[in-house]
Amino acid sequence: MDYVYGPGRNHLFVPGPVNIPEPVLRAMNRNNEDYRSPAVPALTKILLEDVKKIFKTTSGTPFIIPTTGTGAWESALTNTLSPGDRIVSFLIGQFSLLWIDQQQRLNFNVDVVESEWGQGARLDILESKIASDNAHTIKAICIVHNETATGVTNNLAKVRKILDEYQHPALLLVDGVSSICAIDFRMDEWGVDVALTGSQKALSLPTGLGIVCASPKAIEASKTAKSLRVFFDWSDYLKFYKLGTYWPYTPSIQLLYGLKAALDLIFEEGLDNVILRHKRLGTATRLAVEAWGLKNCTQKEEWFSDTVTAVVVPPNIDSSEIVKRAWKRYNLNLGLGLNKVAGKVFRIGHLGNLNELQLLGCLAGVEMILKDVGYPVKLGSGVAAASAYLQNNIPLIPSRI
Amino acid sequence: MDYVYGPGRNHLFVPGPVNIPEPVLRAMNRNNEDYRSPAVPALTKILLEDVKKIFKTTSGTPFIIPTTGTGAWESALTNTLSPGDRIVSFLIGQFSLLWIDQQQRLNFNVDVVESEWGQGARLDILESKIASDNAHTIKAICIVHNETATGVTNNLAKVRKILDEYQHPALLLVDGVSSICAIDFRMDEWGVDVALTGSQKALSLPTGLGIVCASPKAIEASKTAKSLRVFFDWSDYLKFYKLGTYWPYTPSIQLLYGLKAALDLIFEEGLDNVILRHKRLGTATRLAVEAWGLKNCTQKEEWFSDTVTAVVVPPNIDSSEIVKRAWKRYNLNLGLGLNKVAGKVFRIGHLGNLNELQLLGCLAGVEMILKDVGYPVKLGSGVAAASAYLQNNIPLIPSRI
Amino acid sequence: MDYVYGPGRNHLFVPGPVNIPEPVLRAMNRNNEDYRSPAVPALTKILLEDVKKIFKTTSGTPFIIPTTGTGAWESALTNTLSPGDRIVSFLIGQFSLLWIDQQQRLNFNVDVVESEWGQGARLDILESKIASDNAHTIKAICIVHNETATGVTNNLAKVRKILDEYQHPALLLVDGVSSICAIDFRMDEWGVDVALTGSQKALSLPTGLGIVCASPKAIEASKTAKSLRVFFDWSDYLKFYKLGTYWPYTPSIQLLYGLKAALDLIFEEGLDNVILRHKRLGTATRLAVEAWGLKNCTQKEEWFSDTVTAVVVPPNIDSSEIVKRAWKRYNLNLGLGLNKVAGKVFRIGHLGNLNELQLLGCLAGVEMILKDVGYPVKLGSGVAAASAYLQNNIPLIPSRI
Amino acid sequence: MDYVYGPGRNHLFVPGPVNIPEPVLRAMNRNNEDYRSPAVPALTKILLEDVKKIFKTTSGTPFIIPTTGTGAWESALTNTLSPGDRIVSFLIGQFSLLWIDQQQRLNFNVDVVESEWGQGARLDILESKIASDNAHTIKAICIVHNETATGVTNNLAKVRKILDEYQHPALLLVDGVSSICAIDFRMDEWGVDVALTGSQKALSLPTGLGIVCASPKAIEASKTAKSLRVFFDWSDYLKFYKLGTYWPYTPSIQLLYGLKAALDLIFEEGLDNVILRHKRLGTATRLAVEAWGLKNCTQKEEWFSDTVTAVVVPPNIDSSEIVKRAWKRYNLNLGLGLNKVAGKVFRIGHLGNLNELQLLGCLAGVEMILKDVGYPVKLGSGVAAASAYLQNNIPLIPSRI
């Protein structure tokens, strides 16, 4: 049943799915239950409240949908928009590209704003579009908070500021798949209308839950949005919320208990501490990359991502060889370069339930692989740079003080 | 984390989600993996071949979609049909009703053929519609193989016979959610074009996989079907099948390994033996109901379901009280009566990885509950009737002979 | 890895090892930990306090030893007695016999008081021995609270009464392996000096912990007892208790967490409710046996055991055939007759985390097996008798009211 | 239930209990079974054969005892020796000291040969004792293969050579607790009479199995050995081996299946490859220690241990502070210095199911801790030294080539 066994623990450093902590594995190790008996609604009620905390919203309405991030995207779009609606969408890497592809296939009029891969969303262009859209033809802004393919984090507060400045009513739809629970995200403060994430990312669960949160304005929009949806229709959820049974169709019992355990861990650590931990992991990784003499795919510090780092390899090296070798020799999983950056970057995911020594093990591995493929890295250099920073910044584990 | 603990094992006799066998729980007790490394495609390749066996198809193309049965329905419809298409659909209980609701919301022209709840699909009416449809305006027949709300199994061979007799090209779309892997189902032999099931039913897994199988004719239809779909679009799967990476978006690693374990158990027992076991469980349940002096909601033997039995309670009793009491006093979960039969029937699910002594424990519980709620049942009568049959029919466990 | 797979859940009705509840399986599903870091002592401290509750002692000292019941016996004897010491020991079945064998091999002077198998300890003989032992040559009374081979529960309060009446200082050593946590046991009130149980019995854990509790008098005796012991020496434990590190050698991390979960379940249900549940299960079983026209191996009601029932089969039937058939055809595990009652009785274990419907499933199975082997049982008769009693006596599950 | 949660994975680098691989956790995630039904003996039979392979014996008789290493010691001694027997035993660290303490408490006449801690057994003294023991008063040589407290591996081949040279019949009893399955060990070739290990060491299981293997000569000795033993008596096992039921008392079902899984992993990797992997891990650790400018407690290369490295800290540093800090800040568990080397060394366990990147993460952690406590380490230096060696020596994972 394990097709490719290697001794020791697998070092999982793709930007999702990520490592599941033991308490979550334990919580999911259970038989099915009848989701119509009182226990499951009682649990769901708690979960819906708890989930709002990771979105930093009090007014939003969460939907925990048995789907993936791709389904969560579709849920966000089809519930709030109508075919033909003009939306501004930023193409900055493979995942924003895939979302845009979905938007186009769903028949929206997508106004694509493209950046060079490795750069953030062109908010200057957004501003000019918003400024000139007195007729409010733009119905929504679609933006990934963190582009997983390039390790670029966009500035959402600034997006909100632009919309506010021009009092533009466009909905703000945010893909937070590789940010929420890891990078500072504030749904209410930033006036995000729909935010979404997937369970297998910073929540550190298996794949299977698309978690979507809708602002009151988004809920209002859903009443008139004409896009066709059934499986993803929020109105079915809202109907069952009112009934107190919560589920229009069968949820995964295991993932619900797992989500409870995952959220409990996050709240025990403290969401802000979780975010600080990711900042440490991101910073340490970037310091290592620098020490290796390699470039971060992300071109400016303002866009640096604390959940994934795409590392540019020298032209004579094929980054996919690095990924293959990591797996074949070191039991290490790194992320491939995708599409435009295929062969040119490899990615280190550093999100979810992960600590500093795990990351240093990964970085030590990357160094050896770089040497394997002929890059003249000084072994230990990246680890040294990362450690120097970490040794000054890791806090004591609160429960152990 | 367990909100409503009761001593001993929960007796789960709803018609899904059903009991998960220990080997499957074990297989799923694992960390995430990188689904882009070679191990997951290798596993997927095996799964896609294995899954075809439970559909009894060699020519079909399976899709293992991270969704529920409701999503599988949507996948079946939107990939093969275009808005406005006329489809004949049979309303015989709550689940066929929900599917029809979906069909209507997806803008098909649904020609609903209704039966009294407790009766099977009106195939006589189908025949007359087919016979008169020389223009082939009917694009698809949608039918549940087994209606979970009433415990009615439809005769699919007969549907095929009707279509063949009139050489009608309508697609045959079958909801096999509560039949496949439990009730005899033959995709190729019966010329089913799309068949589907959910992981939490007879496969005895957690919820999370909608498994859909498409005939070559259905695949062909998908090339021209104009219904909008993105998440559920087969073409994305087919593209990744060709690439050998298989997944257009992230699958649940745990469910893939769980599916492998579940299928292995089914193949070890033998699919035909699994079906025979369900026949024993169904027969035993019906004999108990008869012994209690109660009526089966299913009105004729030809429709008897081997996966769920809906038991009609006397008019002075509210069946939902039975379900509540089962849970509160006996740690037993029975199915509620739904919609038209709410309060009038309770349901015993007897599908999945279940054996005869588990069922007899349930039946003994139902007897006590019937007495609790004032029905003058003779305690032991149902168990006696069921046992008399079972004692004559249970085979030795092959691995223990 | 599962050598003899059978569909559905295994019905485990041997009197140990018993079914492990899911929350306990979950708690044990974990990696190893460093038992010298602060977490494990903190857990151990809680466990030692909690364990005293199931012995109903406040003054006793518990030892959680990585061993089995056989090791726990040896611990009880060697820590409190010296070679050549006279001990009165009751032979009433296979397990008391094995303990006596151990006592003799450990070079004690064992004064064996034998009963017919199926009868309790001859306390009348004990009384006469105590009455005449003015010289206090008897150093200890060794008695099984519940003889697992015959389903006989001895009256410990009466033993204490006899000792008190003659102010006899003999230590009272009690094997509570198949009683503690299931049958009323009161260490302090009954003046028990050493009591012991095993994790795989009513605690519903895997095998691996021998739990021994010593009264202050037993601890005092351990200071002068000359029996050789090292692995089982209490003094090593006491030394580490004082140090606050608790463990003289490596404990099973998994079993410690499992024990915590198991005790939490028992305390949530309430120890007295657990005992009442076992009384219901025992009574129901005996009523079934009576209805089948069979005899309980236990000859008088005063000795009836609420954790195991040994059922006498008619002379023409070999009880081991019943046990074999149960396993081969019904996925049911019953206990064999042992030694003197081999072939003559089979045993139904009804202890641990078990509820009434599980038991009724087992009883229904036994009925079919009896028929299989040619005994003219009326199918349903035992279940009916048991149900009639249970339906009047099962309480609502408190967490679900 | 998790008293001292820290984010990310715990880095467990004590020399036992060690990390349990996921396939083993999965195998143990199961309900109890009846150990008297045919499945458990069938499994046991396989295990007894498989276990012999890790001892490299074909003629030995294995005993899988529900106990710890301390119990395994007692089993080895009491089954082969009689009180008063003269045994030569080597005191080279805390664990050999504890074994000697046990030997003395068991009333053997222990001829202790002491070494400075950090040195190996004084085989020169052994030789002189053997040479002069024409009367064969020495009944056994007791030696730890690997002293876990100091990281010293003794040369067992040489011990055999000495005994052979003088044709001395003393039994050779070997504690292989921290060597077997990790350091080259050859029971038959080296004429070891009793060898033993514990499940929580290189086998990478939970604590709970003491695995003892006896040569034909040891089995012969057990027939006349007069040491008192009951729980640990091999004769009970041998009796049940003959009966084919194998177990004199209840085994842990979970550990048996776990042992099967653990052995399967070892055989899949290849025992010799497992040993080579430990050699790599040991070498890498020693190179790091050297790079840090610290000393290995082990004084000569011939004694270097591939399973544990005791690192000597400078006099101004308390090594227990290092261990505390590792746990409190880095979620890393290191081994304390024990007894004579308390405060002076900390230990890095590098045994069991562990790979190189895990070790490098640990080494990076140790570097930061060294800096934390004021030792002027150059961050990255140890990792660099270890990596340089590893990058040249790690083989491809065979299943992934």
UniProtKB/TrEMBL annotation, chains A, B, C, D:
PROSITE patterns, alphabetized: AA_TRANSFER_CLASS_5
Organism in which the protein naturally occurs: Crotalaria pallida (Smooth rattlebox)
Limits of the Aminotransferase class V domain: 17-293
Protein family (similarity comment): Belongs to the class-V pyridoxal-phosphate-dependent aminotransferase family.
Alphabetized GO MF terms: alanine-glyoxylate transaminase activity; L-serine-pyruvate transaminase activity
InterPro entries linked: Aminotrans_V_dom, Aminotrans_V_PyrdxlP_BS, PyrdxlP-dep_Trfase, PyrdxlP-dep_Trfase_major, PyrdxlP-dep_Trfase_small, SP_NH2Trfase/AEP_transaminase
Positions that bind substrate: R347
GO biological process: glycine biosynthetic process, by transamination of glyoxylate
GO annotation, cellular component aspect: peroxisome
Superkingdom: Eukaryota
Cofactor: pyridoxal 5'-phosphate
Annotated keywords: Aminotransferase, Pyridoxal phosphate, Transferase
Top class in the EC scheme: transferase
Known EC number: 2.6.1.44
Modified residues (N6-(pyridoxal phosphate)lysine): K201
Record SUPFAM superfamilies: PLP-dependent transferases
Pfam families in alphabetical order: Aminotran_5
Protein name from the UniProt record: alanine--glyoxylate transaminase
Keyword Transferase: yes
